[in-house]
Amino acid sequence: MPFNFAGQxxxxxxxxxxxxxxxxxxxxxxxxxxxxxxxxxxxxxxxxISVLINSAEYRGQYYKMCGENHLKRFLSxxxxxxxxGCPNTLPEPHxxxxxxxxxxxxxxxxxxxxxxxxxxxxxxxxxxxxxxxxRGKKEYAVEYRERIYIFETKQKQxxxxxxxxxxxxxxxxxxxxxxxxxxxxxxxxxxxxxxxxVAVAVIKAMTAVGCLKPKHPFLCIQRSALLYVAFYxxxxxxKSTDYTRQKYKKKLALFEENCxxxxxxxxxxxxxxxxxxERPIDFEFKLNRFLALEVLPRANCVL
Length: 303
What we know:
Belongs to the CFAP206 family. By secondary structure, the chain is mostly helical. Helix content is 41%, strand content 9%. The chain has helices at 19-25, 34-40, 68-76, 102-107, 120-125, 154-162, 164-167, 190-197, 199-212, 221-235, 242-259, 261-268, 283-295; strands at residues 10-11, 55-58, 61-64, 98-100, 137-144, 147-151. The strands form 2 sheets. Strands 1-2-3 form a 3-stranded antiparallel sheet, with helices on one face. Helix 9 (199-212) packs across helix 10 (221-235), helix 10 (221-235) packs antiparallel against helix 11 (242-259) and helix 12 packs across helix 13.
């Protein structure tokens, strides 16, 4: 029990309060912020906040606030925010909005989402214009009054959760944007498939090889460029596993190091003969590495 004087509220942060005790002693607002409800008539859901840094005890009950400022307001005048002083009451449990996962939305089939899948927050905030009809995503879904709504972003989902009465009961105009059915990539013609599937990756690979202009020891320029593009595409293929990408990133780095041997040796070996003591410290190592590539050039470049 936190220390407080009669009729006063106290913060319960860092007290040894178990989840079971918190559940049994939550006040009439449950996990909702009483300050949000009293001042703005908003539903400030704090159920996802596990720490009690902004929670308080008053008259033997616990109250959770959404932030430090609201905690200070509650501690200064708690009677203003609890029954009977609070001007607004928490709606009945069946009238409280709750988040749904994408799987939960699918499991509710054949029930369909409201507003034909358009985001109610975007539509109303956009003054219910045609341009404000933006489709929501099932990953941002909310159930309210036994209806399902989906939203464009998490921020708009949170906005609906705070004030569902503002957004839930809207009518769509008679004319709405057509439903865009996804087109399977494999159904496109060859050029369309290449454009939509690999164009960006190939452009990046060609840009990289054009900037580097690699020439691998004992390989022709064409084969050097082709191997570099192949390594690059495998190293940055987002559909591959992390292990595969890392593997080919290392191969790509090794390929670039081998290509750098030619300009290094050509610049270092210019001029008259120099004794070993006057040569760069890594000259012998890089020269031996260069000569070793002549024996098994393909083995060092195998995909």
